[in-house]
UniProtKB/TrEMBL annotation:
Coiled-coil segments on the chain, per record: none
Amino-acid positions noted as binding [4Fe-4S] cluster 1 in the UniProt annotation, renumbered to this chain: 9, 93, 135
Localization of this protein: Cell envelope
Residues that hold [3Fe-4S] cluster according to the record: 212, 230, 233
Molecular function terms from GO: 3 iron, 4 sulfur cluster binding; 4 iron, 4 sulfur cluster binding; electron transfer activity; ferredoxin hydrogenase activity; metal ion binding
Quaternary assembly: Heterodimer of a large and a small subunit.
Chain ranges of the Cytochrome-c3 hydrogenase C-terminal domain: 167-241
Keywords on record: 3Fe-4S, 4Fe-4S, Iron, Iron-sulfur, Metal-binding, Oxidoreductase, Signal
Main location (coarse class): other
Name of the protein this chain belongs to: Hydrogenase
Originating species: Poseidonibacter parvus
C-alpha cells in the first residue's frame, strides 16, 4: 500500500492512527510508503516513480500544480494508479473536493468528482476508485475497506463510488435524539443531551449518508451524541455556508429528510406539533435548567 497526499490538513492520517485495531491491520499490509508510519520506502524514493502498489490511498484534494519532493502530484498519481488494483480517495477532499474545493474551485477537486460533477484526474480509471468521504474519515470505514480488499471480497458501491455497507445508512439512523426529532422538540444550544438539533442548530443527519451513529467513534460516541449537529461532511456539497443553522422559507425547512416527500413531511410535522409530549419536554426543561 502507498499513501500519498494532495492538498490536505492531515486529519485523515490522525484519524487512521486512532484505529483501535491498527496493529493487527498493519500486520496484513506491506506499507510501501506512508507519511507517518514506518515504511519500506521514503518519499524521495516514491517520487522516483520506480515502484508500484496494489492499493493506492490518496488523501486531500487534487491540485494539478501541487508538488511533492519537486515532482508534480499529478505525475505521482498517474504512475501509481496505473498499476494499482484499487485507489481509495480518502476523505471528502479526495472524494469531492471538500473544503479546498470551496477555497480554490478552479484548481482543487476530488479524484473523479467536483461535488457531484464528474471532473478529476482518474475519470478513465474510475472503476478502480473507492470514495471514502468524511471530514475526517471514520477510521473504521477505512479498516473495513482495506480488510475487504485484503480478503479479496467485493466492495459494493453506491452511485458516488462509496461502499454501500458504510454509506447506505443516514447519520440520523441510530441517533439517540430521534424521538425528539419525531415530535419536533428542539434543543436551544450545543452540548445538550436532550432535544433535536435539526431546526435550531442545522443538523444534517436526516440528509447525510453516513454510519456515524451505527459505527461509533472510538466505539463510544458520535457528534450528535455529544450535542454537536451533523455537518453532512460525507456529502458532495460539503462544506455549506452557515453550518449551524437550518435554511427555512417562511419557517419551513428548505431541505427535508431523504426519502420523505416534502408535502408528507410538512403534514406529519404539523400533526406532531399539535401534541404535547410532557415526558420529553420535561426532560429537556430539567436538563437545561440544571445546566
Amino acid at each position: 500500500m502507498i499513501w500519498i497526499q494532495g492538498v490536505t490538513c492531515n486529519a485523515n492520517i490522525h484519524s487512521f492512527l486512532n484505529l483501535p485495531s491498527l496493529p493487527s491491520l498493519l500486520d496484513n499490509l506491506d506499507m510501501v510508503y506512508h507519511p507517518s508510519l514506518t515504511s519500506l520506502h521514503t518519499l524521495e524514493e516514491i517520487t522516483l516513480l520506480e515502484t508500484s502498489c496494489d492499493v493506492l490511498i490518496f488523501e486531500g484534494a487534487y491540485d494539478p500544480l501541487l508538488k511533492r519532493n519537486d515532482v508534480l502530484v499529478k505525475n505521482i498519481l498517474k504512475h501509481y494508479s496505473l498499476n494499482a488494483k484499487y485507489v481509495i480517495a480518502l476523505g471528502s477532499c479526495a472524494s469531492f473536493g471538500g473544503i479546498f474545493k470551496a477555497s480554490a474551485p478552479e484548481r482543487n477537486s476530488g479524484l473523479i468528482f467536483n461535488e457531484k460533477e464528474e471532473f478529476g484526474p482518474l475519470l478513465d480509471s474510475k472503476a478502480k476508485v473507492i470514495n471514502l468521504s468524511g471530514c475526517p474519515i471514520h477510521p473504521e470505514w477505512l479498516s473495513y475497506t482495506l480488510n475487504m480488499i485484503i480478503n479479496k471480497r467485493e466492495v459494493p458501491l453506491d452511485n458516488l463510488y462509496r461502499p454501500l455497507e458504510l454509506y447506505s445508512n443516514l447519520a440520523h439512523h441510530g441517533c439517540t435524539r430521534n424521538e425528539y426529532f419525531e415530535w419536533k422538540i428542539d434543543t436551544k444550544g450545543f452540548g445538550k443531551k436532550e432535544g433535536c438539533m435539526f431546526y435550531e442548530q442545522g443538523c444534517r443527519g436526516p440528509m447525510t449518508h453516513a454510519s456515524c451513529n451505527k459505527i461509533l467513534w472510538n466505539e463510544v460516541s458520535s457528534k450528535t451524541r455529544v450535542g454537536t449537529p451533523c455537518f453532512g461532511c460525507t456529502e458532495p456539497d460539503f462544506p455549506r455556508s452557515n453550518l449551524y443553522s437550518t435554511k427555512t422559507n417562511m419557517s419551513i425547512p428548505q431541505d427535508v429528510p431523504l426519502g420523505v416527500p416534502k408535502r408528507t413531511y410538512l403534514t406529519m410535522t404539523g400533526m406532531a406539533k399539535t401534541f404535547s409530549i410532557k415526558r420529553l419536554e420535561g426532560k429537556l426543561i430539567d436538563y437545561e435548567t440544571t445546566d
